[in-house]
Design a protein that fits this description.
The complex is a heterodimer of chains A (898) and B (109). Chain A has 898 residues and is α+β, with helices and mostly antiparallel strands. In chain A, 52% of the residues lie in helices and 15% in strands. Chain B is elongated. Chain B is mostly helical and 109 residues long. Classes of the chains: A alpha+beta (898), B mainly alpha (109).
Chain lengths: 898, 109
């Protein structure tokens, strides 16, 4: 038996509802449970056990349901034919009435397939749009973390006014452990993963190693699938080096050989013993190929203020977040008091681990869901309108049924059942749309959304869709059901009766059109603002020119290349070879490329104004660059000079520095910084002479504000890993293959993990705003088309009901344009009211997306007026056909009919 | 039994499967037995419907037993063929054999 697995709970619930009560049903559920477990353990079949179980729900359940229903109907038929009172032994004939209603509904859909089809489709679009967002939300945010008792896991931010969410230093972690008892354990890992070379067995491979505390895995309550976790003594000085492999690396490099545990592999040419392999699902910190203990000593664990450790902990049972936070406040207060030069103004803040990883995505998706929920509302208003129109044409049928003795409540129920069936159909269409939309989303979304690979339609999405579908019934079904059965029998049954709509019913339909126009305007507004923001982001001055730039990450394996100074010769040779290519492209390099995020940072200050305490220190982003960097990137040099080959020649001397405008604003406002000295805390205090000022570059995402940044010559501290930029005239990707070949020819051991155009990189970093504006615009258009159809419908009806009147007017010599004016005026009143209401709604709603806007205000008058005009034009064209029809009314025909 | 009990082909197969399985005759195993020995794939819906029908005819009785752990705590329904069932089955089989007599040349050995 396989413990731990159980069939989808929702499926079991549905099934037990369909099956007979008591033991007879339970037995079947038990049988299915057994097969389910067998499928789980044998992994047979291409379909997962969960899907198999879902398939069994209708397969097993529906026959039972039908049998139950037909048996009751049979019984009723028999007892009705006999004398005496009708007694149904099952005690409910509601069920069979509903069954009757459903069958009747399906028959009436057959009579009117066009209406059924459009209503189902419109509802489906409404439901599908919100289900899609829900499925993303469900995958990315709502599902718990995959760790045992994951709600006990918390994340520790080091927090100061300037950087509210920072990592902490190792000595802080030690103090947290000693000063609190709220945690079962506190573990951590180094912020930056290390790229290391795995050699031996096959060719060299670059792997991502994460340094973790020995207790990190036990804090998460995850054990290796083979071997063991790290031991406490393995993070102490002098311990033998050990490693734990990821499942992926184990399969890829060691073919899943369990004997690898206990064997010695070669990392960076050092022997390291493998002690375990983590399970396949475990990927934390994300992208790890292997894990190593945090090495004691060095800069890693000794220096307070070297904030390179991410800390997470597991709360002791029964301890609340508030209690733990209170303890952390005491400890961090003590730390800040004891080390004012590095920790003043600093504190530790707890958030749940879930919040840490999914908080941002949750906020974005909830807002998106709020916007998208307008679409089902438009759909409801639209379908309600359709149903009202149909109720008018059905009034004869309804009246006949009332006349032969049907009660009104019975008829209302009949109409509501029809709405339910349509809603169910809409739910199915919506589910299909959510599924298709999800697949499309998955194929073009980058890593912007967590856990995207598991996106799909599961029980929760189905339940949500069903819920939305049923919640829509009161919105679109109730009104038509009550209005539709409110007929005066004598009027409706008269020949030609039901030609005119009652004034009241038109009033309701007018309101529905106003609602649709208003909701569409709100959606269009949101879309307009998002599209403008996206456009602004695209036009945003990045500080460099991404067009024509090829970007490649090149890593010299350090088991072959000396760190420095010799490696500089290799780089010089590399650049010389590239520069000799046809077209003589210009080449430069940097340790971290733009658009990847600010940092790593160092404390800097102006020599003439040393800081009095840690609060006054400024974290500035540090970049190592080759000489031609500003030239190749086309970063404007504002004053002074760029680096030359003579800068930073010896590692002992302090090199010159180039700073950006943001740094000038921070330290030298209104002054000429050239020739002044920037102090830089890098192992020891360095005094750097400022030789140049460059424009701000977006190191983070394009919408972020520029942060203080300073540039040092790469020659001063030659790097093994560089990001190489090549500027070309043509398509940069043309050079990609040549670049790969050149590197391979020089040394096959040099990997190029990344090669792409800088424009491609820009597109990736703009994914979220692009996704939001595309999605909202698409839905806004759908909503607008729906409301245009709704408007068309009501005006067409208006013209039809007034044909008689218009004919007589024309016969009496009225100007045809006066009749068109009549129709147009009516249409415009509806559109105008809708726009007014919608504007009110937008003013309230725009605040929600304030944080997504870039370079445009939430009340942007241009967007407001543009969107209103656009909507008015579309609405006017929807009025056009009914207006023309009114013009074509032939007075002779009308009077003949009289 | 006042009336003659008539058994359909699937019903006969199912009775034989129950007899084969002896003490292990419950829903799933019967389905498996039919597939493995009888080369007959039965949908769950048909399986449970037929079992109910057989019980209604009085040819099998069922007993609910031991809510087992590997079944989400749900009971098993064990089936036993009644003497009436055995008799009806024998009748059906002998009718079968009588009709088959002399048809060896056509039906194959």
């Amino acid at each position: 038996m396989t413990p731990g697995f159980s069939p989808p709970r929702l499926a079991v619930t549905i099934l037990s509802w369909l099956l007979p009560r008591g033991n007879r049903g339970e037995v079947i559920i038990g049988d299915l449970h057994e097969v389910y477990l067998e499928k789980c353990s044998s992994r047979e079949g291409i379909l997962g056990p969960d899907l198999w179980y879902w398939v069994q729900v209708p397969r097993v359940g529906i026959p039972f349901l039908i049998r139950r229903m037909t048996r009751r109907r049979l019984y009723r038929t028999l007892s009705e034919s006999s004398e005496g009172p009708v007694v149904d032994p099952t005690g409910d004939n509601l069920m069979s009435d509903i069954w009757n209603d459903v069958r009747f509904a399906i028959r009436s859909f057959h009579r009117n397939p066009g209406l059924t089809f459009s209503a189902t489709l419109i509802l489906g679009i409404g439901i599908g749009s919100i289900s899609l967002i829900f499925s993303i939300l469900n995958t990315a945010v709502l599902r718990p973390l995959p760790f045992e008792e994951s709600e006990e896991l918390v994340w520790v931010w080091g927090s100061s006014e300037r950087t509210p969410q920072n990592s902490v230093s190792f000595p802080d972690l030690v103090d947290f452990r000693e000063g609190t008892d709220a945690f079962e354990s506190l573990g951590g890992f180094l912020v930056f993963s290390q790229t290391q070379f795995l050699t031996g067995r096959d060719e060299a491979e670059q792997v991502r190693a994460n340094r973790v505390t020995a207790n990190l895995f036990s804090t998460l309550r995850v054990s290796p699938e083979v071997g063991r976790s790290f031991l406490p003594q393995e993070e102490e000085a002098g311990a033998e080096p050990v490693a734990i492999l990821s499942h992926g690396l184990w399969m890829r490099r060691f073919a899943g050989d369990p004997d690898v545990v206990g064997s010695v592999i070669s990392l960076e040419d050092q022997p390291v013993e493998v002690v375990g392999v983590m399970p396949a699902w475990f990927d934390f910190p994300a992208g790890s190929d292997l894990w190593l203990p945090i090495p004691p000593g060095e800069g890693y664990t000794q220096v307070r203020g070297n904030n390179n450790v991410s800390v997470l902990g597991r709360l002791r049972e029964g301890v609340s977040m508030e209690q733990a936070q209170a303890q952390m406040d005491v400890v961090s207060g003590n730390i800040a008091a004891a080390y004012p030069d590095v920790s003043a103004g600093w504190s530790a803040r707890l958030v749940t681990l879930h919040e840490r990883f999914f908080g941002d995505a949750r906020e974005m998706l909830l807002i998106l869901m709020g916007i998208v929920s307008l679409v089902p509302l438009v759909a409801c208003a639209n379908v309600a309108s359709l149903f009202l129109a149909r109720a008018a044409t059905r009034s004869t049928e309804i009246a006949s049924r009332l006349a032969v003795g049907a009660s009104r409540s019975r008829l209302v129920r009949q109409l509501l059942t029809e709405s339910f069936v349509i809603a169910l159909g809409g739910g199915v269409v919506g589910l299909a749309l959510a599924y298709g939309g999800g697949r499309a989303f998955r194929s073009f979304a980058p890593a912007a959304v967590p856990r995207l690979e598991t996106l799909g339609v599961d029980g929760a999405v189905m339940a949500f869709t069903l819920l939305v579908a049923f919640l829509m019934v009161p919105l679109f079904g109730v009104l038509p059901a009550f209005r539709g059965t409110d007929v005066r029998i004598s009027d409706a049954l008269k020949v030609g009766g039901g030609r005119g709509m009652s004034q009241r019913r038109t009033g309701v339909r007018n309101l529905l059109v106003v609602a649709q126009v208003a909701l569409s305007l709100m959606l269009l507004m949101a879309s307009g603002l998002l599209v403008r923001s996206y456009g602004n982001l695209l036009r945003q001055d990045l500080g460099f020119e991404p067009e024509g730039l090829l970007y490649a990450r090149v890593a010299l394996p350090n088991f072959k290349y000396e760190a420095f100074p010799e490696v500089q010769t290799d780089w010089d040779e590399f650049f010389r070879v590239l520069g000799d290519w046809p077209g003589a492209p210009s080449v430069a390099a940097v340790d971290r490329p733009p658009l990847t995020g600010y940092g790593p940072t160092n404390d800097v200050w102006a020599a003439e104004r040393p800081p009095s305490s840690a609060v006054d220190r400024v974290d500035a982003t540090r970049r190592f660059i080759s000489e031609g960097y500003f030239d190749v990137m086309r970063i404007p040099l504002l004053s002074g000079r760029a680096f030359q080959i003579t800068d930073g020649q010896t590692s002992e001397e302090d090199p010159p520095v180039v700073i950006n405008e943001a740094l000038v604003r921070e330290f030298f406002p209104g002054e000429d910084p050239l020739g002044k000295v920037l102090v830089f805390d890098y192992d020891i205090i360095r005094n750097l002479e400022i030789v140049g000022v460059v424009a701000d570059v977006k190191e983070g995402d394009p919408g972020s504000a520029a942060e203080p940044t300073f540039y040092l010559p790469a020659r001063w501290r030659p790097r093994l890993n560089l990001n190489v930029f090549i500027r070309t005239q043509g398509d940069p990707m043309d050079l990609a293959t040549a670049l790969r070949q050149a590197v391979q020819a020089a040394d096959p051991d040099i990997p190029i993990p990344t090669i792409q155009t800088m424009e491609g990189r820009l597109a990736t970093s703009l994914f979220q705003p692009r996704f939001r504006s595309v999605l909202v615009s698409l839905l806004a258009l759908v909503a607008m088309v729906l409301s245009a159809i709704g408007l068309y419908g009501i005006l067409a009806c208006f013209v039809r009901s007034r044909t008689h009147e218009i004919g007589i007017r024309l016969a009496l010599g009225a100007d045809p344009s006066s009749t068109t004016g009549l129709v147009m005026k009516r249409g415009m009143i509806l559109v105008g009211s809708g726009i007014l209401v919608g504007m009110g709604g937008s003013i309230v709603g725009a605040r929600a997306i304030q944080s997504w806007l870039f370079g445009v205000g939430a009340m942007d008058p241009l967007t407001f007026s543009g969107v209103s005009i656009f909507l008015t034009v579309v609405a006017l064209s929807a009025c056009l056909i009914p207006t023309l029809r009114a013009l074509r009314v032939d007075p002779v025909e009308v009077l003949k009919a009289e | 039994m006042g009336k003659e009990t008539y058994l359909g082909e699937l019903e006969q197969m199912m009775l034989m499967a129950i007899l084969q399985l002896k003490a292990e005759a419950y829903g799933l195993n019967i389905q498996r037995e039919l597939k493995e020995r009888g080369d007959r794939q039965v949908s769950p819906g048909a399986l449970y419907a037929t079992l109910d029908r057989l019980e209604g005819k009085g040819v099998v009785t069922s007993r609910f037993a031991d809510p087992a752990p590997g079944r989400g705590g749900k009971p098993r329904r064990y089936l036993t063929v009644t003497p009436e069932g055995l008799e009806a089955l024998q009748k059906a089989r002998s009718a079968w054999h009588r009709l088959e007599e002399g048809l060896d040349g056509i039906m194959g050995a």
